[in-house]
Inverse folding.
């Protein structure tokens, strides 16, 4: 026979407060095993600890009491999977709202732009900009990088997969992104376009029964009037401002996670066996988590989109030297790629430079 515990002892052992236990008893979710008729004291059996701990965990996951009560009518893990999906969906929606708030904040903080030479027009602000792009096969047999310079949308992608699959994936991702963004130039439209790009590559890979994927780093001027970066993988966006280079995207790689966790130094990362392993890529799962954020732009900022072939071949100091020159963006883009190739770039190298005026 199970031992009986006072409500205080039971509370200590299951992690639910006495107040919670009383309310769950009232709801019929966890009824005391015995109640002293004269004192009214409640007693729970040790056999009820298992249920109580599950209740505590489900409450911590944010599940409502009435839903938990129904769950115990048919305690199936299928229901846990269902709640898991709901939590991911809600979290995604909240992250989207935060990113939109970030983009709106960046817009509010951006100074009025100078008179445009060429311009990208958002609803509330006009950024004047000039671009330059360059790509090189580097030390590979094929160039699986792709680049996009379209209306209010600039992007690079670094294809993954054997044979020509990486090449197909990177081009398909950028073409899909471009077409979908053209149809809806809002911030949410940009995110939808990113998801479309992921699905297009995923469908293509499944159709060929092959593994293929691509990184994606894109900078867009949305109809909401914000400059927004969207990225998956280890292609990067940098901002060069007042002589200082700042990486604005966080790589989705095993080593980036280890560095962020303080388990690996930047120096050791260069030789780590998993340095090329991505934790996220476009096209390898049906739904991918896409990072996006507002980008603060000011006149004289120089933005750089690039694939990993560039920053694996050149040090930040070497990038700085080229970006600091007054050369036109096309000349600087060519210079970056040439410098990477001269440093024996093992990988494809692709860059887009955007000078804000
Ligand atoms: Mg690469």
């Amino acid at each position: 026979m199970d031992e009986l515990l006072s409500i205080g002892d039971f509370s200590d052992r299951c992690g639910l407060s006495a107040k919670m236990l009383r309310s769950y008893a009232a709801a019929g979710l966890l009824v005391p095993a015995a109640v002293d008729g004269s004192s009214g004291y409640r007693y729970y059996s040790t056999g009820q600890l298992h249920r109580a701990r599950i209740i505590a965990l489900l409450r911590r996951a944010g599940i409502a009491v009435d839903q938990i009560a129904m769950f115990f009518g048919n305690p199936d893990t299928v229901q846990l999977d269902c709640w898991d999906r709901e939590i991911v969906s809600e979290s995604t929606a909240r992250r989207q709202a935060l990113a939109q708030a970030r983009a709106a904040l960046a817009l509010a903080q951006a100074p009025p732009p100078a008179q445009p030479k060429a311009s990208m027009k958002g609803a509330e602000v006009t950024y004047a900009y000039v671009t330059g792009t360059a790509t090189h096969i580097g030390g590979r047999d094929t160039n699986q990088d792709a680049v996009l310079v379209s209306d209010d949308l600039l992007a690079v992608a670094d294809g993954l997969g054997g044979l020509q699959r990486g090449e197909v994936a990177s081009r398909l991702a950028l073409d899909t992104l471009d077409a979908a963004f053209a149809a809806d130039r809002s911030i949410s439209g940009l995110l939808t376009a990113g998801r479309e790009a992921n699905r297009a590559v995923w469908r293509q890979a499944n159709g060929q029964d092959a593994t293929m994927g691509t990184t994606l780093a894109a900078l867009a001027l949305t109809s909401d009037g914000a400059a927004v970066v969207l990225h998956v993988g280890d292609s990067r966006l940098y901002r060069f401002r007042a002589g200082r280079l700042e990486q604005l995207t966080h790589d989705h790689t095993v080593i980036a996670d280890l560095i962020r966790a303080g388990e690996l130094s930047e120096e050791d990362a260069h030789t780590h066996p998993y340095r090329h392993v991505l934790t996220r890529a476009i096209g390898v799962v049906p739904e991918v988590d896409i990072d996006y954020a507002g980008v603060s732009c000011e006149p004289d900022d120089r933005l750089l989109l690039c694939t990993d072939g560039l920053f694996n071949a050149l040090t930040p100091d070497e990038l700085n030297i080229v970006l600091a020159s007054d050369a036109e963006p096309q000349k600087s883009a060519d210079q970056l790629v040439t410098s990477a190739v001269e440093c024996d770039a093992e990988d494809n190298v692709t860059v887009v430079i955007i000078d804000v005026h």
Summary: The pocket of magnesium ion is lined by residues 158, 307-309, 347-348 (CB under 6 Å). DSSP finds twelve helices and 15 strands in the chain. The two ends are 80 Å apart (CA to CA). The CA atoms of residues 67 and 73 lie 10 Å apart.
